[in-house]
Amino acid sequence: MPHVDQGKHRGLTRAAIVERALKIGETEGLDAVSLRRLASEFGVTPMALYRHVRDKQDLINTMAEFVMEGLDLTVGFRASMRWTDRVRRAMLNFRHQMDERPLALQLQIAYSGDSLSAFWRPIEDVLGILLSAGFKPREAAKLIRILSNLLAGYLLLVRPAGPKADPRANIRDRELLRKRFELGLLSLHPDQFPKSVATARELSDVWASDPDRGWPDTVDLLVFGLEAMLRKGRKGRAG
Q: Do 125 and 187 sit in the same domain of this protein?
């Protein structure tokens, strides 16, 4: 029978298990989190963990609820702000706070629990902004779903390395990617892809650049789109 550190065993709580699981996930990836690995970390048998978490999914659900707690998109809001400025600030807050919670989006995808309060707080914040701007409830609900998908996609796909990545390695990787991308574009048949070949330098530079360079334009695009949707809705109701 393996030796069990009684000091560690006495400190084994649901919160301690979740915190250790998050540390493993943030440094090694969510796939590295397992009950067997956690048992080894705490110096206990896997069965000891089952007194605190039912199974792997229960652990994932608790981790998700833990990281989403305290998410607040209204930080920096002022009473004098226009609704568009509130939307901008909310999106900036979302990205910043997700950067501080590198596993949050992955855990949301894997979540299967019933506790909605932590997950619904950012939706409540944005819903209040859109309703106060004049959007009808169904319009606001539809637009929040679209915004959530676009922002989550940005964070999951455009910035996969996360905030803790080595910036020097990123610069080297991006320059190699830019060169490969440009060479690939230049290899296209100029009769079939004349515009892509002619703008190969610009396209490769943008595609391989630091994603944060495009973040202000991303926010502008979304905010201007919301303004246009509001005008469209008012015009439709007036007609």
A: no
